[in-house]
Amino acid sequence: MEINVPSAFNSLRTLVLLASLFFSMSGHAASQAEISPNVSENPLTVQVNWNHQFQFAGFYAAIKQGYYQEVGLDVSMKNWKPGIRVVDEVVSGRADIGIGYSSMIADYAKGVPIKLIMSSFQFSPMVLLSHQPINDLAELDGKTVMHYGNLQILGLINKAQNLVKNPVISVDSSGNLEDFILHKVDLYGAYTTNEPFRLKQRNKAFFIVDPKSFGVQSYGDLVVTSEALAAKHPEQIQKFKAATIKGWRYAIHHQTEMVDYIMQHYPVVKSREALLNEAKVTTHYVQSGQVPIGKVEPAKLMATAAEAKEVGLISQKEFNRLNMKQFIFNASQYAYTEEESAYLAAHPVIKLANDIDWEPFEFIDKKGQYRGIASDYFALLGQKLGVRFEAQKTLGWAEVLSKTRAGQLEVFSCAVATPEREQYMRFTKPYLSFPMVLVGRKNVSFIESYDALKGQKVAVVNGYWSHETLKQHYPSIELVIVDSVKEGLEAVMDGRASLYSGNLGAINYAIHKYGIIGLHVVGQSNHRFELAIGVTKDNPVLFNILRKGLDSITDEERQQIFNKWIKLEVVNKLDRKQLIEVGGISLAIILTLTFFLLMFRYQKNRQQAYIEKIHELTYATLINMQTLKFEWVSDAFTRLSGYSREELKEMQYLDLATETLSKEEQEAILKQVNAGQSWKGEMEGRANDGHSYWVELTLTPVLDVMGHIQQVWATRVDITDRKRNEQLSITDDLTGLYNRRYFNQIIEREINRAKREHRSLAVAMMDIDFFKTINDTYGHQEGDQVLKQVADVLETSFHRATDFVFRMGGEEFLVISWFKSEAEFQSYLEQLCFKVKSLGIENAASTEGVLTISVGAIYCDSDALTNSEELYKTVDRRLYQAKQTGRNKVVMTD
């Protein structure tokens, strides 16, 4: 944002107001009540679904380390016995919490009153053991399968029944691995964390049939409680969940210690060696890629429910009425009384009394959508409460006030509790707080108090709190009534008003959006916009609902909304040249009047305090452009980077950049800054402990008295959480490559870019040959390692800025790249095939004896490019040809 200012002081004044805004937001975002451990411990029993082993290590670790005790819980683990049905134990109250298979989703669909707390495993380790390799489900023809009725196995058998001539025969599991060893059954339901190790110890041959290889997968070890307990003690269940996740983190990093603890404290039927092996394998299921431990997604649960419907565990009617968001435990939903819950059920749509033109707080955009800070808050409240808030899209604020007074609208979305409004509305605690400021033209000096405005024309928006406040407390001010913030600022520019009084956040946003220059903040009121939710006094039930809902919004959620809409970009224009200019002017004043000397000292001290606040707020550093070393470092940046101030001053700035910043990009940034232009962009940094963080970086060159660039200010906004969320949505958990979702997002963009730049586009699809055999022979764990190794080869081979590598699903990959000619592209792909083969990964099913890949590719000049669908069909067809004509080859023609 650019604000034209006559002096550094006025810029700094604006900055400190923004800083005070930020800190006040933090204060209002703070939770009103801290949770402290209970003095008396609440007992909770956990029913496991198998013998005690590392499968439940997260729970044991939480007990061992006192994580449950810290939050006032006394947790004990109930032994498993054959015949125990976990869901029955939970619903009956014989156990408070149960750990069971994903088939409990079918129980929930049939109306069993349970709530899903978390999932210990991100995907199920359940597989079938076989005496011979199974490459096609048709090979299950007439086979006997011993299993526990687990949904993964039922789904696999259901798929096979459509392919076999003789039905697959299911046999209830005896729990005795000898039945498989003695060939009493053809296939045996097992956990990859358990039985394979036991068979290897006894030198018994076996093959693994993994349901995931045939498209059947779900969560494993679902952790549930009864609806009754969840409703009665939601805070206990929430604490249990948090402590268990903490326990799993500990167990993953202290495997040997936890194995010994389990053996000492629980009746274990496995050897220590077996438990250690189980621990090693289990980690892969508990913590998958960047997915948080315990995380459950409604969409994945619905996919499992669809599988349950296919195998006949639930009916179409039961499936249709499923709501997985209701299945997942959410502590906030239990904060409401029966009367409040009934109100929400009876009022699925609640109308808001909102402003349509008060950016960034709330407004209607060009597409007719309700947007802004308040909009984001109410979208979040809607998710938590299970209702939809309907905004007014055509009513001006004056009309909204009129309808609210008349009782036609009953919820102020974002308003100040004025004495007049409090006559008919009841307000929650403020959830936003912003200072009221004065804005004037560049020739207006700083105004210390609103009392000095007697007789002056001040623009205010009709009906806003600032309008009411000035009318009530400053009757001597001549008010110029306008309809919007933009009109108020324009009134100052065209001379209709000397000043505009309003909300600093709205002013900052409007100046940025409309490119208004020549204005600056010239004063601040002691009054603040304390923005809250208001509800008509005749509806106390709704008021309590919204008050509780607002309290349930976390600090992180509040901060995320704040950062989305409020940006402290005026820092871009703060440089030493301005400080020198104001110093020169001030010096002249000092020489003229002693009084101004005292004032200057006073203001300069305040300026320095403001500067320090802003530097800390923006993780600021000052960099020497000759050496690229730090000359000054804020405390905030030392915390962000993990280095001390002394360590940083010995380093070059670029030492903190990750390898993602190429040399070409570095040179381009330095060239722009050396030319006297500010640079702004997203940057990944590497902290002292090795972890990476992301910032929105602004580099502002500082001119010396001769106009030379000797230094540059670097200011930052921490966007690490946002980038991580972005990465989660476009990255494959296992390999770290881009996923198919991201391919769908960018493929048309890359095609259009190639057309626009008149360059070719090279696309190739790869498939690992006979990959299923690796999974079946060596296990899913080994299969995942193979996928990672192939992904590493692809990533190192296609690492240019114009290259994109995707895992499209299973063992299929895709590359988008650029080459000078078709021959060069084909040669490069053939070298890629050789690199994969050279890994020397054993694969008995391959004619080469080792792992290979098949490739289908296309090379298109810009004028031959059509659309993504045709492109994809072509490479897919050519990949099929490569696989049908011998594999381990590249096909680039039909």
UniProtKB/TrEMBL annotation:
<dbReference type="GO" id="GO:0052621">
    <property type="term" value="F:diguanylate cyclase activity"/>
</dbReference>
<keyword id="KW-0732">Signal</keyword>
<dbReference type="Pfam" id="PF00990">
    <property type="entry name" value="GGDEF"/>
</dbReference>
<keyword id="KW-0472">Membrane</keyword>
<dbReference type="GO" id="GO:1902201">
    <property type="term" value="P:negative regulation of bacterial-type flagellum-dependent cell motility"/>
</dbReference>
<dbReference type="GO" id="GO:0043709">
    <property type="term" value="P:cell adhesion involved in single-species biofilm formation"/>
</dbReference>
<dbReference type="InterPro" id="IPR029787">
    <property type="entry name" value="Nucleotide_cyclase"/>
</dbReference>
<keyword id="KW-1133">Transmembrane helix</keyword>
<dbReference type="InterPro" id="IPR000160">
    <property type="entry name" value="GGDEF_dom"/>
</dbReference>
<dbReference type="InterPro" id="IPR001638">
    <property type="entry name" value="Solute-binding_3/MltF_N"/>
</dbReference>
<dbReference type="Pfam" id="PF09084">
    <property type="entry name" value="NMT1"/>
</dbReference>
<dbReference type="InterPro" id="IPR050469">
    <property type="entry name" value="Diguanylate_Cyclase"/>
</dbReference>
<dbReference type="InterPro" id="IPR015168">
    <property type="entry name" value="SsuA/THI5"/>
</dbReference>
<feature type="transmembrane region" description="Helical">
    <location>
        <begin position="579"/>
        <end position="600"/>
    </location>
</feature>
<dbReference type="InterPro" id="IPR000014">
    <property type="entry name" value="PAS"/>
</dbReference>
<dbReference type="InterPro" id="IPR043128">
    <property type="entry name" value="Rev_trsase/Diguanyl_cyclase"/>
</dbReference>
<dbReference type="InterPro" id="IPR035965">
    <property type="entry name" value="PAS-like_dom_sf"/>
</dbReference>
<feature type="domain" description="GGDEF">
    <location>
        <begin position="759"/>
        <end position="894"/>
    </location>
</feature>
<dbReference type="GO" id="GO:0005886">
    <property type="term" value="C:plasma membrane"/>
</dbReference>
<dbReference type="InterPro" id="IPR001610">
    <property type="entry name" value="PAC"/>
</dbReference>
<dbReference type="InterPro" id="IPR000700">
    <property type="entry name" value="PAS-assoc_C"/>
</dbReference>
<feature type="signal peptide">
    <location>
        <begin position="1"/>
        <end position="29"/>
    </location>
</feature>
<keyword id="KW-0812">Transmembrane</keyword>
<dbReference type="Pfam" id="PF13426">
    <property type="entry name" value="PAS_9"/>
</dbReference>
<dbReference type="Pfam" id="PF00497">
    <property type="entry name" value="SBP_bac_3"/>
</dbReference>
<feature type="domain" description="PAC">
    <location>
        <begin position="677"/>
        <end position="731"/>
    </location>
</feature>
<protein>
    <recommendedName>
        <fullName>diguanylate cyclase</fullName>
        <ecNumber>2.7.7.65</ecNumber>
    </recommendedName>
</protein>
